[in-house]
Design brief:
The chain is mainly alpha-helical. It has 2 domains: about 70 residues, Fe,Mn superoxide dismutase (SOD) domain (Helix Hairpins, Orthogonal Bundle), CATH 1.10.287.990; about 110 residues, minor pseudopilin epsh fold (3-Layer(bab) Sandwich), CATH 3.55.40.20. Helix 6 packs antiparallel against helix 8. The structure holds manganese (III) ion.
Length: about 210
């Protein structure tokens, strides 16, 4: 199988009380597990695509055969999105961000609270299922965007620095229909070290490109 479900980097119960154990179990094993299984099934007849990283498939969906394009978009997106999601959370996380991300937030949003409010607001307003993101743009700026379903910003040429899952499966058992409550609580498990690493990756990819302009 070319793609594998990555293990959770902590126990199912580690993000309590922000995210309950049963949600974590179902979300990781069943939902993420199904995205991986469906992605592998779609690639079965296309051995030349099996060695490609999921981000490379999603970066150029037009290069994916039409017969499996929607499946790769949805399930490859689901795989990539959740692989990030588990890592940008951690037990006893949260607090004020540190490191490079602070400068980015200040420059773009003024201060952390305004950033958080705009991110939560965008997440609360997205109709249906999807994700809210802080993305890096080709010019080096950052921006809050939302995507529907399991679309990853990489398909639009944007780099996903951090994102929160707005599907009901991410919060419904504990928060029911109160998505804004989940969005507000989520900041208590955010892993800023990992997000800073992702920001570094964005910048590392960016600088060679900018140097050629
Ligand atoms: Mn999910």
């Amino acid at each position: 199988m070319p793609h594998e479900l990555p293990p959770l980097p902590y126990d199912y119960s580690a993000l309590e009380p922000v995210i309950d154990t049963q949600t974590m179990k179902l979300h990781h094993d069943m939902h993420h597990g199904a995205y991986v299984k469906n992605l592998n099934a779609a690639l079965e007849k296309y051995p030349n695509l099996q060695s490609k990283k999921v981000e490379d498939l999603l970066r150029d969906l037009d290069a994916v055969p039409a017969a499996i394009r929607a499946t790769v978009r949805n399930n490859g997106g689901g795989h990539m999105n959740h692989s990030m999601y588990w890592k940008i959370m951690k037990p006893r996380g949260g607090g004020e961000p540190a490191g490079e991300i602070v400068q980015m937030i200040k420059k773009t949003f003024g201060n952390f609270n305004d950033f958080k409010n705009q991110f939560n607001d965008a997440g609360a307003k997205l109709f249906g299922s999807g994700w809210v993101w802080l993305v890096g743009k080709p010019g080096g700026e950052v921006q809050i965007v939302t995507t529907p379903n399991q679309d990853n910003p990489i398909s639009q040429g944007l780099f996903p620095i951090m994102g929160n899952d707005l599907w009901e499966h991410a919060y419904y058992l504990k928060y029911n229909n109160r998505r804004p409550e989940y969005l507000a609580a989520w900041w208590n498990v955010v892993n800023w070290e990992e997000i800073n690493k992702r920001l570094e990756t964005f910048k590392a990819h960016l600088e060679p490109e900018l140097a050629h302009r």
